[in-house]
Amino acid sequence: MPRGGESAADLLFLFTSIATIFGIYTILAISLNLEFGYAGQPNLGKVFFYSVGAYVAGILAANVVTALAGFQGDLFGAAAAQARFLYATANPGMILGLFVAALILGAVAGGAFGYLASFPALRLRGDFLAIVLIAVGEVSRVFVYTYDPLAGGAIGIVGVPNPFVWVSPLVPDMAVTAPRLLYAAVVLGIAALCFLYAERLSKAPFGRLLKAVRDDELVADVLGKHTRRVKGTVLVLGSGMAAVAGVLYAFYAQSVVAGDYIPQVTFLVLAMVLLGGAANHRGAIVGVLALTLFDRFTQPPILTALGIYWSAPVDLNYVRYIAIGLLLILVLMFRPEGLLPERPVGTPTPKPGLRSRRMRARTSRDRWFRRHLLVRSRPFSRPWQRRGECPEAARKLYWRSWLRSL
Amino acid sequence: MILAGTTAFFALRTPGPSGGAVTYVIGVEIAISGPYASDGPLRRDGAFLAIDQMNAQLVAAGSPIRFERSHVDSKGTAADAISGFEGLIAAGIKVVVGPLSSTEVGAIMPLANSNRVVAISPSSTAPRLALDDYVFRVAPNDAFQARALATLLKSQGISKVAVMARDDDYGRGIANLTESIFQASPYNGQVQKVLYATSTTDYSPDVGVLSTKVQAFGAGADTAVLLVAFEDDGIAILNLARTDASLGAVRWFGSESVKRPKFLDATTPAEIKDFLVARNMTGFFPSPARNPVVTKFEQDYQAAFSRAPSPYAYYSYDAAMVAMLSILRAGKYDGAAVKAILPSVGQTYIGASGQKVFDQYGDYAAADYRIWHTTFGGTAYAFTEVGTWFYASGLIAWD
Q1: What is the DSSP letter of A3?
Q2: Closest to B102 (Cβ–Cβ): which among A8, A155, A308?
Q3: Which of A74, A156, A159 sits opposite B103 (nearest CB)?
Q4: Cα-to-chain-centroid distance, residue B127
Q5: Ramachandran bin of A363, using left for φ above 0, alpha for ψ from -120 to 50, beta for the remaining angles
Q6: Is the peptide bond before A179 cis (omega within 30 degrees of 0)?
Q7: Helix A11-32 vs helix A46-60: crossing angle, to nearest 10
Q8: Helix, strand, or coil here: B12?
Q9: Is the CB of B93 less than 8 angstroms away from the CB of A259?
Q10: Is-cis flag, bond preceding A172, omega within 30?
Q11: Chain A touched by B19 (CB under 8 Å)
């Protein structure tokens, strides 16, 4: 079909959009996976910590860049946004510095709010904690939405410049795409760092401890683990990560609008984690990729650009919503553990000579358990028993039976 | 699964529109879910009707040019508006009708400007977004309506107004502007505001606060309620208000959104419609006095979709028409060229919502408002037009 003028599809633009959103949601999914998948803390207020990062970025940009640009007038109006854009184009050092500052401040603010949120987390469990965190997110959103001077109220902060906008004049042929490409690369890089950090954390003793808290908090407590501190730590880490995602989204969307930070965002991230597989970071990433690609490639304009035309009498936009719900239901029915299920922790056992003090302590404690408390009803039959080892699962089983006997 | 597969097989087909014709794609980014689930489809259809009519005219004229539409649902949120707009840009679309709300328009503004894609919003009205850029707005901003409301209230002997408004960019915009204009000279009135959350479904606390404020004013002839609401929330509020003694004793006024058909259609309980008639619900809508263009649009819309257009469907029709005429006038499918020619096209275009004269920011420069009130003619309820507020003079002329 011949089309007029320059109407060819811009696949590179589409790629930058998909890559950036994928990176941002990967960070969110990993952070929720740490809290929910590994530690069993249903942080349904995830969107709140995401919004904290976005507000930090937006407020910083609106106040600092506007002041540096020498603009007088409505901080949240379109004219101020234009002034910020022009200033960022002419001052690469400042906008990059502001971006880095926003990332650091956002992570710190997110972590601090995560620490505050850990207080109810220490006292509440399961559904009650989830409800409290949803409420925290909603209250903060309504506050920002209704209090105009903070972040522009209902319309929000328009004009948070892309940190690489200054590249445009340098490459006129790719004036639009080059800043987006660079930004997508930075987002993917940060997402990769978050993934590596979360993977290491999950495979470390701390990761096993998270699973112990998730599977049986009482047993972990009895074993002398500081479960409250563990829950607090994971909320701080997860919230800091979510805030970093928020900062990245604000600079990507170039706007911060309170109405975007609604509970549905948390549920979307949760759906990504469940689809991919909870307590498996690779699974979470697969979930993010699947839903991001589905969302983008079922948009009617994209289908049209790819030469696929929808001719049914029902609006394709409605069909998309039905399809995504159906997909989730089918996955939960036929593969409830997700596309990539949870796997045992793959930490290699340290050699005897390299055992840490903590490991030695644990081994001696296990020995003490066996000597003083373990009532053997049958001879050791499992390989680990014959080797005289006592893995986590066995210890847990032992303590559970011991507690029941009390 | 088999059913879904079969449906998909027949629904998806390649290639698309055939033909030898040069095709220009008009992006339509109009929300049809979320807060716009009721009115969004009616607005979308306004744009679709314009595209279909233009194609029919081009066929009749033997032109090789055709317009194609590509609609994406922005869901009424900034994030989805950005996502949808990115999809339209990625598809190579240079002219977009939409989005609807000021929140969405503010969010897509940087994308439209950096990618040189013209966006024509049928209903964004926030003055804050005025800028000489690639975003055009064909509906008059809130300040016009607030001025008109203040004049109308004073002409009806009202000096105290309790505003019940949606707590979003639309409701808050009208409520704040009405407050600042009506409290200033020469009106010197008193205004109290109740802003209710758009996400709630229980409005009884808000209606209770409204009732308290009306009682504090004194529920007399010089007190009124101004309702700034959409369909579902508005009807729920009216249903609660009709049983309240204070709210049932004062005059009611409504924003342009209260003129939507659902307020008076068959699905709305008769008690609510009777309440509207009894309280003489009166409001504005920015439109020219009835003329043949309006009548033709309404007839064509009814014929095509078997329902009457909602107020902002007139604007989405005109936004699409102005977009297509600008492409034709520019002679090429290029955002910069369309942006340059669009104001002069608007100046010579008189559509379903009047002449589209733009100011230096690409926003609708001025609007006269028709005044309507709710009536019951013995068999049916209706919005009956009774006068016009002229922006040039700031005066009301009754029919």
Answers
A1: B
A2: A155
A3: A156
A4: 15
A5: alpha
A6: no
A7: 130
A8: strand
A9: no
A10: no
A11: yes
Q: Which residue of A has its CA nearest to B19?
A: A1
Residues of A in contact with B13 (CB under 8 A): 308-309, 311
Strand, coil or helix: B367: coil
Separation of alpha carbons A91 and A27, rounded Å: 29
Please give the torsion angle defined by the CA atoms of residues B294, B300, B301 and B302, in that order, rounded to the nearest 10 degrees: 110
Q: Can you tell me the distance from the alpha carbon of B89 to that of B107, in angstroms, rounded to the nearest whole number?
A: 15
In a 3-state reduction of DSSP, which class is residue B93?
A: coil
Q: How far apart are CA A213 and CA A205, in angstroms?
A: 12
Instruction: Give the SS3 label for residue A223.
Output: coil
Q: Position A252: which residue type? A: Y
b/e string for B222-238 if b means 16 or more Cβ within 10 A?
bbbbbbbbbbebbbbbb
Which of A167, A299, A316 to probe the B interface (max B CBs under 10 A)?
A: A299
Beta bridge partners of B375: B382
3-state secondary structure of B395: strand
Structure tokens at A274: 């469940």
Beta bridge partner(s), residue B196: B166
Q: Which residues of B touch A268 (CB under 8 A)?
A: none
Closest residue by Cα to residue A391 from A368, A353, A362: A362
For tokens 């490991």, the residue is A359
- Chain A residues touching residue B15 (CB < 8 angstroms): 1, 307, 309
Tell me what pLDDT residue A109 has: 97
Q: Are A265 and A124 in contact (CB under 8 A)?
A: no
**Residue of chain A with shortest Cα separation from B28:** A301
Rounded to the nearest 5 percent, the helix, strand and coil shares of chain A are 75, 0, 25
Window 324-343 of B: residues touching A by CB (8 A cutoff) are: 327, 332-334
Residue A36 makes CB contacts below 8 A (sequence gap 6+) with: A42, A43, A270, A273, A278
Output the pTM of the full model.
0.82
A7–B94 CB contact, under 8 Å: yes
Question: Residue B177: pLDDT above 50?
Answer: yes
Pair A394, A383: CB distance under 8 Å: no
- Pick the closest to residue B170 from B238, B117, B250, B233 (CA basis): B233
Adjacent-strand bridge partners of B370: B285, B388
User: Which pLDDT tens digit goes with each residue over B60-113?
Assistant: 999 999 999 999 999 989 999 999 999 999 999 999 998 999 999 999 999 999
Q: Are B16 and A260 an interchain contact pair (Cβ–Cβ within 8 Å)?
A: no
Here the ipTM equals: 0.80
**Residues A324-345: pLDDT tens digits?**
888 888 888 888 888 888 887 6
B99: preceding bond cis by omega (within 30 degrees): yes
Q: Which two tokens stand for residue B83?
A: 């996502």
